[in-house]
Amino acid sequence: MESNRNSVKDVEKHITRVLFCGPHLPASNEYTAQYLQNHSHIKVDVLPFEDVRKDIANYHVCIVKSMRLDSDIISRASQMQLIMQYGVGLEGVDIDAATKHGIKVARIPSGATGNSVSCAEMAIYLMLGLLRKHNELQISIQQKMLGVPTTETLWGKTIFILGFGNIGVDLAKRLQPFGVKVIATKRSWASYAPHASKLSRNDVDDLVDVKGSHEDMYDFARKADIVVCCLRQNSKTAGIINNKFISSMKKGALLVNIARGGLVDYEAVINHLESGHLGGLGTDVAWTEPFDPDDQIFKFKNVIMTPHIAGVTEHSYRSMAKIVGDVVLQLHAGHPLTGIELVN
User: Fold this and answer.
1) Cα–Cα 20 to 30 A to 308, which of 35, 123, 127, 262?
2) How many domains does the chain have?
3) Helix (H, G, I), strand (E, B) or coil at 271
4) What is the structure's pLDDT at 194?
């Protein structure tokens, strides 16, 4: 009997356990489990948020999704080797605490999976939905009205892309046929030097009519008909779409957010929708997630919200599942980790 118990323990020592946190974005764990289903030495589990704290010590890899991993939770992760996001955003992870405990933290670059393309398409969907007054159209159908309301087109508009990373690039590419003017800000445009990126300076010049730095964002906001937020959320960008920023926008301009809800000051948005200064909000992310269906913001006809679905497509999620699965296999075998961006 004792030898059997020892055999079981020996087998368990050679199992790499992967934890997905929480019930949201279920395709992430489902597709990853499918990708790894023929590898008996890898176990993929999903735990409710409330169980992560007490059970995280049993796992070697953690996929956080929308969970916040604070220093206390991380200190309990005694076997943890890698914390990953199923995507780009790592604002919920205490990276300093992970580093202190010798745990690597990584994101999946959006350009490698089709995630940035998907998010760019969602931005256009939200822009068109606001310009074409989607919510009011549904009311017209219910009232058996034809030809109302009068809507707008993208043609001739000035689009401000706030944060010209992978999503911003893919958005600018897809906006070209619409006959718009694209202005964009980026912390450093030098990264698009030909030797450093697949996108050359000439490519950027073709995609962006006016380039600016972070310091230009208020000036650019004054010129734009639509602002699209594509920033990563961190300590410097949290709440960046605040009262000052929205006040600097044109009266009636639209705001679209396909990045993170924490980039936007909720009260500032509500106040400017109330006053009519903000012409509309299209967002795939929110200040609290999952969204509250009774939130006061839904009283505005010029608000369109989608349930954090911008990057959730069959292609992007299968691609990310493969990257997560391959990294877990590399970790199990003791090989160098590829396909991800380590941040510590």
Assistant:
1) 35
2) 2
3) helix
4) 44
